[in-house]
Amino acid sequence: MVKLDRDKLRDIPGWKNAPIHICMDADYRGLTFCCKPGYSLTFASKCKRDEVLLELGINPREFIKIKEDFSKENDWDSNLVCFGSFSYCCMRRDGCDKRDPALLARYPGKSMQEIMVIYYQKKKELAKRLLDTVTIPEAKKKVEPCLMLF
Question: How high is the pLDDT of residue 13?
Answer without folding.
Answer: 92
